[in-house]
Amino acid sequence: MTEINASPNMNSSGYEMPPEMRQNIAITTLDKIWNMGRRYSVWPMMFGLACCAIEMICTAASRYDLARFGMEVMRPSPRQSDLMIVSGTVTKKMIPQIVRLYNQMPEPKYVLAMGACASGGGPFKEGYNVVSGVDKYIPVDVYVPGCPPTPQALLHGLMKLQEKIDSESITSVRWYQKEAIEAIPVPILGPDIIDPRDFPTIKSLTQGKPAAAEPAAETA
Amino acid sequence: MRFSALKRDERAGYEGHIVPASSLLEVAKALRDEDGFDLLSSVTAVDYLTDNEEEESFFEVVYHLYKSTGGGAEVLRVQVPRENPVVPSLVELYPGADFQEREAWDLMGIKFEGHPDLRRILMWEGFAGHPLRKDWKEVYFEEEAKPFGNRWPGGQVYRVEDQNPYGKNNQYPDGFDPESWVETEDPLLYENLEKAAREYTEDIDTEQVVVNLGPQHPSTHGVFRMAVRLDGETIVALKPVMGYLHRNHEKIGERNTYIMNMPFTDRLDYLASMSNNFGYALAVEKLMGDKVAPPERAEYLRVIMAELTRISNHLWAIGFLLNDLGAFFTPALYAIEERELILDIFEATAGSRMMCNYFRFGGVARDLPAGILPRMKDLVNERLPRKIDELDLYLSENELVRSRGEGVGIITPEDAIAFSATGPVLRASGVPYDIRRADPYSIYDRFKFDVAVRYHGDVYDRYMIRVDEMRQSLRILKQALKDLPEGEILTGHNPYQVRVPAGEAYGRVEGPKGELGYYIVSNGKPSPWRYHVRAPSFINLTILEKMCVGQKVADVVVNLGSIDIVLGEVDR
Ligand code: SF4
Predict the structure, then answer these.
(1) Average pLDDT for residues A57-76, to the nearest whole number?
(2) B243 touching A, CB under 8 A?
(3) Which of A77, A114, A170, B462 has the most beta carbons within 10 angstroms of its beta carbon?
(4) In B, which residues are within 8 Å of A62 by CB distance?
(5) What does the pLDDT read at residue B201?
(6) pLDDT under 50: residue ranges of chain B
(7) What ipTM describes this predicted complex?
(8) Is the minimum distance from the CB of A149 to ligand 1 under 6 angstroms?
(9) Is A168:A31 a contact under the CB 8 Å cutoff?
(10) Does the beta carbon of A115 sit less than 6 angstroms from any atom of ligand 1?
(11) Are B385 and B305 in contact (CB under 8 A)?
(12) Of the candidates B42, B17, B12, B39, which has an alpha carbon nearest to the alpha carbon of residue B27?
């Protein structure tokens, strides 16, 4: 089994192997096998948002070579991908699409927020069209700081994701539970971006007050 | 000037003429047809809002016109009242005004009468308010200008979102009911698309389909969207949709101090941060006058960095154009390999691979570190010429590149000028307009180089011109590296805050993608009153529809790739 070389921690503790068999047989748990298969075949979605996307492409290119991690298979379609690298500034105009793409990804799925913008708004946080971090809408597994994070930093983030995958167990992961996983409601482009989950708060704050004197801008 | 309607702008620090809105069309037409100002470079608006009782508040629309044969600008201004501002549209005369007027409508709320398709462009239809107006406040508004006050009142750090009831960057008008809200952005877009299609075809019996390419699409170079109406495989109408990366560069820039904006310019065209720095530094230096004239060594370093940027940008552009042509990732891998070597130089000098933040008013931030100069010389004299030749050898005569590039997406020189295209897009159509020659800045007049021109105006020529330009950049680099003098790199000390006298300036450079201009209005305060970026990627896109209509849908992607856009700059 070549996998033993690929992952030296394959053997579960507590099972002693006779030395002559160590290169050929491993006794392990289902979780470990399962996780090993998944950690080396995380397919990211080919999805770039802003400056950080350039560094993501560089990471995938010749010098940094994402293929070493089994992650070079960038899929243009969310339906074939396991990982969404949110590489750049998330704007209000774009967030409905991002949420939609996230909903279209099949489980198991992970999100990596690459860079200051995706993690918390970054240098553009105060902007009127900027979402202060993609985690305001979708759950994030790994945050990579930097503006832009260097390819090394992104690789480190991906390794952290692999660690996270290692720690999962098929008995407890959410996608094997009985309950269906709810899709995240897609935000609406209103007078400002509207998160459907905020409806009650919005109503309690705006209703009861007189309508604004100036109507929302119309087209000429 | 011959027009009685024209009034010289008398304000200190301003140039150009004030035109009444009613005679704008007539003046612009005469300037274009009689005086040769055929290139409308920039259209923008300034909100002169004042709370001084004696002065009047007004909007001013500013037009920068140039001759495609070179020379300085003619600046026209139209002043309109803040209530119901209406200005005649210049789209008929200069189709290149199209997107820029839409932007001014979107962000400033100025109506352009006679504009064929005045929709919002960067924000979406239905968004409340026009954000660049001085009295419009964003959700996270704290103070008019930076640096902000203490963020640790009472020793406690606070985050702005904690002060928002939604915990987000959101605000809604009073009386707003989220449940009855209907989105209007897309319906309006499709309506316009249909209108454009009807103009194109006479035979409306065939069924047409609408296809959306983007905003998440592997070949749109970022979050760009094109709504395309197809008749079979033929494109009958196309509308670009942008704003998915609108990061409010200008609004933030008007709160920042001058020096704070420098790192923000890096993030405009993030493939060419050094050129962006260059343009911004030039514009502010123009305002500040001679006391910040950069020393010799700094001028050379600026040129060297700008030309290295051009090469790295074109390498990337070519690699990804080939991607679009179907040669997936292999040429890009080779191109990225060379680009990495240039980035190493940037990282060693400026401290960052991509976001260099290297220029300062009056010079550059750091000197070259020890040992980097021989590496640069080696790269410029040995490695890059060889690699560019290799690229040329393997790609230029390639059957795939030729058959998919030749005769595709033709832009005539007249159209290119009328649509305000600049940079490689303009020069590939046979117009030898390069700001380094047409209106020289910095020390470009000292170097021997040719303005690359190609004459067919198709995708293939737009590819070839980038190869030509890289060779010319190498020529400049060789001379600059040979002559690089010793000495200071910054006039004065590295300032934390600069004093900028009141007035306006338009600084422009020949960026890798075209004319990159910064329009800055100062009122003597530490932050600019108006900060506008004339982004070449954005304005070069104006011609996209014209290029694509009548062609096959597969060519859209190639046409877009040959313009070479970066979304950070398109949407700002
Ligand atoms: S974190 Fe920095 S580099 Fe990344 S998208 Fe934001 S501004 Fe660009």
Answers:
(1) 85
(2) yes
(3) A114
(4) 333, 336-337
(5) 55
(6) none
(7) 0.87
(8) no
(9) yes
(10) yes
(11) no
(12) B17
